[in-house]
Write a structure and sequence with these properties.
Blueprint (H helix, E strand, L loop, with lengths): L8 H10 L2 H5 L3 E6 L2 E7 L13 H16 L4 E12 L8 E12 L2 E9 L5 E16 L3 H4 L2
Antiparallel strand pairs: 1-2, 2-4, 3-6, 4-5, 5-6
């Protein structure tokens, strides 16, 4: 019996992104994905601005959450968010290109902790986000039957 190699983090991310209508609809792009890491970008559009003409914090948080999702699922085990804390550091404006970099800080059993740093195109920090994840062992992002295709 031939064994099937585990999919790479990039393959898992591509599989997830194909069905991720929210991230794609907001114009996010995956820059890179590795074991426990992911970097995504998003350009702030006019429909993302709040009444102060700055990017609504929910969109910044969503970018960080998406990077978090790709980082914590990179091992091909279905993993969901258990909680997020967000600190907004600076406003983002129309046309800014935001980058969210997610990094695994700790993973033990079913629980993981990830830090996301959101920056603008000048490298200035816009937000810091910490996420807690919960893995669902036995559930693969890319099921074994699809890995051999």
């Amino acid at each position: 019996m031939e064994s099937v190699a585990s999919p790479t983090p990039a393959a898992v991310a591509a599989h997830m992104f194909a069905g991720d209508h929210a991230s794609r609809g907001l114009g996010m792009s995956i820059v890179s994905v590795g074991a426990g890491t992911a970097t995504l970008t998003m350009t702030v559009r006019g429909d993302m601005l709040n009444g102060h003409e700055i990017c609504h914090g929910g969109f910044i948080t969503t970018l960080a959450d998406s990077a978090f999702a790709f980082a914590c699922n990179s091992g091909n085990v279905v993993t969901v968010a258990a909680g997020l804390t967000v600190d907004f550091l600076a406003p983002a404006h129309r046309g800014d290109v935001l980058t969210a970099q997610a990094t695994e800080v700790s993973r033990s059993g079913r629980t993981g902790v990830y830090d996301m740093v959101v920056t603008n195109q000048r490298g200035a920090r816009v937000a810091l986000v910490r996420g807690r994840s919960h893995s669902l062992p036995g559930r693969a992002v890319i099921p074994a039957k699809e890995q051999g295709r």
